[in-house]
Amino acid sequence: MTEPAARSGLRTLMGGNRDYRRLLLAALISQTGDWAISTALAFHVYRLTGSTLSTAIMLLVSRLPDVMLGSVAGTLADRWDRRRLLIATDLLLALGLLPLLLVRDPSHLWIVYAAALWTGILSTLLVPAQKALVPQIVAESELVRANALLGQSGQLARLVGAMLGGVAVAAGGLPAVVLIDAATFLTSAALQLTLRVTARPAPMATTMGRQWAAGLRLAAENAGVRLLIVYMAITGLGEGIFAALAAPFVADVLGGRADAYGLFLSVQAIGGIIGGLAVALHAGAARPRLLLGAGTIVFGFLDLALFTYPLVSPVLWPAYVLIALAGVPAAAAMAGFTTFAQTVTTDAHRGRVIGLLTSAQAATALAGTGLAGVLGGTIGIVPTLCVHAGGLIAAGLLVAKRHSCLNNSVI
C-alpha cells in the first residue's frame, strides 16, 4: 500500500467513523484506569502487609476468571446485546471499586481480594464483548487497522496508567486511585452509551448451556479456530515464562536494578505503540493470517536475540533496543490474531470464539509461570526464556504453514 493510500485509509477510519473513535477512546480511558488501580493495589498491599505472597495471591485471584469463565463470557457476548453488556460491565466495575475505600489495615485484606475477584470476573466479560463488537461498527476491510489501533491504546494506557497509579497512591493514598479508576469506568460507559451499533439477529431460543456447548463444537469443527487455540496455548505458555523471569533476567543476567527493570517494561510498551501505528499506517490491508504468522516469527527471533546476547556482552542498552524493536512485530501479530479471530466464524459465534481463546491463553500463561519457576532454577534463566522465544517461532511457523491449507475466503 502506498503512503498516501495508507494515510487515507487511516483518516477514513478515524475521521469518518465516530462510533469507532468513541469505542477507541472508551477503551483507552478504562484501560488507563485498570493499570492505575493494578499498580496502586500491588504497591499498597505490599506496603500494608510486607508480604510478597499477599500481592501474588491478589494477582492470582484477578487472573483466575480468565481461565474459568472465558468461554462463558464469550457465550454471553453472543447471547446479549454487546453494547449494553459493555456499559453494564463498566458501571459494575466502578461500583465494585468502592469497598476499597474502607481498606485501612491488614485485617481488611479480604476486601482487596474480593474486589480483585470482582474486577477479574467483569473484565473477563468485557474482552469478548468488546472484540466481537468491533466488526459491527468497522468495515471488514478496515479491521486490521482498527485492531492495531485498539492494541496501541492498550500499550499507551499501560504507560500512562502505571505512572498515574504510582503518583496517585503516593499523593492521595489508595482512595485517590479508587476514585480515579471509578471515574474512568463511568466515562467509558458514557461514551459507549452513544454508540450506534448495527442490529444483530436475535439469538436462537436455546439455553445458555446449549449455546456454550455449541461453541465447543464449533472449536472442534472449525480448522481456523483449532489453529488459533493451539497458537494461544503455545504463546500463552511463553507469556507466563516471560512474566515470571523478566525481572530475574534484568537483575541477575544483566545486572540491572529496579529502575532498569521499570525502564525495560516501559520501552516494551513504547515498542508496542510504534508497532500499532506502523500496522495502522502501512499494513491495514494485509491478510490477518499472514500478519499473524510473519509477525510472530519475527517477534520470536528478536526475543531470541534479546535473551542470548548477554552470553557475549551482558550490558543493558541492547536489551532496551531489542525489546523496543520486538514490540513492532508483536503489535502486528496481535492485530492479525484479533482480526483472524473476528473473521474466522460468523457474528453469531464470534464472542464464544474470542472467549475460548482468552481461556486458553490465560490457562497456559498460569502454567508457564509455574514452568518458569521449575526450569529457571534447574536449566537457568536464559535457557528457559529461549524456550519462550522458540515457542513464538514455532507458533508463527505453524500459522504460516497452515496458511495455504485452509480454504477460507475471509483470510
From TrEMBL:
Membrane topology label: Multi-pass membrane protein
InterPro entries: MFS_trans_sf, TM_effector
Localisation per UniProt entry: Cell membrane
Cellular component per GO, a single term: plasma membrane
CDD domains per UniProt: MFS_MefA_like (cd06173)
Family matches, as SUPFAM superfamilies: MFS general substrate transporter
Major localization listed first in the record, in broad terms: membrane
Top-level taxon: Bacteria
Residues spanning the membrane: 85-103, 109-127, 227-251, 263-283, 290-311, 317-341, 353-375, 381-400
UniProt keywords, alphabetically: Cell membrane, Membrane, Transmembrane, Transmembrane helix, Transport
Pfam families named among the record's database cross-references: MFS_3
Protein name: MFS transporter
Species this chain originates from: Nonomuraea turkmeniaca
